[in-house]
Amino acid sequence: xxxxxxxxxxxxxxxxxxxxxxxxxxxxxxxxxxxxxxxxxxxxxxxxxxxxxxxxxxxxxxxxxxxxxxxxxxxxxxxxxxxxxxxxxxxxxxx
Length: 95
Description:
Elements: H1 11-17, H2 34-42, H3 48-57, H4 62-73, H5 77-94
């Protein structure tokens, strides 16, 4: 039986998960660029740790987190998935 391949990750993803997030701005998260960052900043979400906190508040429920990203910040499914993969990888790396 063939092993399932892990999804490839971007350099942004690798950089995000390789060290504690500290005070990293929200746009350091994969899937969050300037437009989404501005939308988040308007709602006082300025740090990656706040997005990670939402992931934890949702009890690591992938669908709920992605729906939050899509519904509240109008991001595509692809970008919501990139952000989800990063916070999930971060959780696995540091918890």
